[in-house]
Amino acid sequence: KALSGGQRQRVALGRAIVRNADLFLMDEPLSNLDAKLRVAMRSEIKELHLRLKTTSIYVTHDQIEAMTMGDQIVVMRDGRIEQTGSPLDLYDRPANQFVAGFIGSPAMNFLPGTLRRAGSTAHIQLNDGTQLEAPARTGGTDGQHIIFGTRPEHLTLADAGGIAARVVVMEPTGMDTFVACRHEGVDLSAVFRERHDFAPGSTIHLLPDLQRAHLFDAGTGERLAA
To answer: Which of 71, 102, 133 is the last residue of a domain?
Structure first.
């Protein structure tokens, strides 16, 4: 009798466990499974890890797997370590634009603009002229070209102001409303915890949570921290 994908993965895990190893190396163990089975196997592997108390190195391109299963995450690009830290450290304080775009689902939104400083105050001027207050504890210099980053779940609706975006697609999930929209040619995502019914082509105004937004240098991608 042929084994299913999930059964084969369980057999492979069992073979590894009986060796009583000091270290487990798992290279994309869930990559060939369907979505439902991936969730189930993810829980099984984490439960197994907690029970065995054995160090495991888990390689994945799926950031949800990394966030939910890892105590420490190492984000790599082209063989180079971009950042190491706990899942929430990487989510809250990404070292650069690459890490910010990898951690989080849907991915962080990025908008190009310019940092403007006048004395102790700072604001952002997006490329279309929209002005926003600079995030708290922002580094950078006046006139510096920046990328403004805000996560989809950190956007709220407003009657006016903020970032004006045209609705492209709306996807209600029951608990949340996912909206794909576009601002001056830049694709954006927004996730609202309440139900909405936006018509495609309509304009909505989005207010980013500036306490949780980030600025990145447009050239290097490094986060601008004070």
So the answer is: 102
Q: Are residues 57 and 122 both part of a single domain?
A: no
* Contact of 74 with 89, CB cutoff 8 Å: no
What pLDDT was estimated at residue 118?
86
| Residue of 99, 105, 107, 94 lying closest to 188 (CA atoms) | 107
Q: 161 is in which domain, residue-wise?
A: 109-217
Q: Are strands 80-85 and 73-77 parallel, antiparallel or unpaired?
A: antiparallel
Q: Which two tokens stand for residue 56?
A: 């495991």
Task: Say whether both 88 and 16 belong to one domain.
Answer: yes
Judging by DSSP bridges, how do beta strands 121-126 and 109-118 pair with one another? antiparallel
The 10s digit of each residue's pLDDT in 170-179 is 998 888 999 9
118 and 53 in a single domain? The answer is no
- DSSP characters over 58-95: EE-S-HHHHHHH-SSEEEEETTEEEEEE-HHHHHHS-S
State how far the alpha carbon of 161 is from the alpha carbons of 131, 132, 169, 205, in Å. 9, 9, 21, 6
More confident residue, 48 or 97: 97
